[in-house]
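Cross-posted from the bioinformatics board.
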Amino acid sequence: MTAAVRIGGATRLYAIIGDPIAQVKSPGVYTMLFAERGIDAVMLPAHVLPGRFDESVRGLMALGNLDGLVVTVPYKARMVPFATRLGPTAARIAALNALRREPDGTWSGDMFDGAGFVQAALRKGAVLAGRRVALFGAGGAGSAIACELVAVGVASLALIDPAPQRADTLARLLAAAFPACDIHVAAGVAGDRDMIVNASTVGMHAGDGLPGDIGPLDARTLVGDVVVTGTGPSALIRTASERGCLTVDGHDMFAGQMDALMGFFHPEAASLAQAANAAD
Amino acid sequence: MTAAVRIGGATRLYAIIGDPIAQVKSPGVYTMLFAERGIDAVMLPAHVLPGRFDESVRGLMALGNLDGLVVTVPYKARMVPFATRLGPTAARIAALNALRREPDGTWSGDMFDGAGFVQAALRKGAVLAGRRVALFGAGGAGSAIACELVAVGVASLALIDPAPQRADTLARLLAAAFPACDIHVAAGVAGDRDMIVNASTVGMHAGDGLPGDIGPLDARTLVGDVVVTGTGPSALIRTASERGCLTVDGHDMFAGQMDALMGFFHPEAASLAQAANAAD
């Protein structure tokens, strides 16, 4: 999407960095949000080439009128050393997707991929505390979502990944920080789970099925999927909807992340955002 | 001014670099011109701090989707080493105000401050060839204008500057390149001149008078002034208008430079620009 915006000499800059960049939606979305909230700022697409990563990022961060960065594939881990300090999720998983310049010129970084999921679920009226979760995918998105789910008090978290090593690493990391939660690696979905989240890439391609055997679903199961397709719901979301489950899809997550990121960049505008959401 | 524009992931970037930056008009003006010509691009204000000049410029030029830079005070000379090649005016005066990325990734730089003046004068129907010119100011703007005036064939050029050394340096430089033109340093305006241009800063401040003794003016004298004020015409332009002279002011120059720069960045759109000007 693109947004109608105004730009002048005093306009403040934000940039989303990634490779490739032409497909990103953030420039249009955040630029429009800034405009709606009366903030004279734009979100630029910045195509950072892998071989020129350091000089591109240093150059952007050196600009006197650049106030923040959003970070997308493949740079979420590579940006970590550029933050002066990290929020709890970014520190835990050693990846970030947003950097904000503080008034003293230092940079705070944090990871909002998981916060977007949690915020979207809460906005739909879901209760997350006490849930028994099966999570497919322990990569970047899965790690971020896992962090946020244990932080909001799910009772158990089963990590399912074709690469058991990375699921195990994530499980150990989270178990150390959240001893009250039952965090473990699993080969499949156990019968007692009441929440299923797909954070794997299964579903991104036409003809993809479910991320794995999800067993029988009943209407009390909360089902989430990070996948965004251009062709309607993923197989997982479609199946869940048919069974009457509450669902959180990739579009919901993106909207949830918008709120979280706007709150990070412009805390004073966050209450306005919440008011606008309440009116949706 | 600000312009209503659309911005998305595929939008191409141009930036104007300077310090300070909040006062520049180029972001609004060029972003609007891009939009009018169906070019998906924006012109950003980039606040480049003097102590972080090299890293800022290198970072911007490293971005895969940045196609050009406009350069303003105080960086027109400092940017020269970043160009792979220079146009004739930029090479002569060792200053540039625009850089364009070529398809092979190299950078071409040139200086359009003088071209803007010449283009504005021609658009008003002025004949420049054969003129006997008195030019106040041999700094950046004066040097650029002097270059373009001798290139379009003025008969003589008297350079008047409180610092005779820099007027002398410019005169020698131009005389070597354009032996047919009578180029010399002068202390004041001689009686035979039929064109007066102010490229000094006199006129920028409220209460400023003329840049020097301009002698009697008649209606055949072409009078130009680089000064842009927020409070109406400069004393020089006001005086010239009262005498019935054809005038070229700072706003005319900025408009002329817009055309020259758009032609530099997007040669294929230049003919459209000329068509639009013809319709003004």
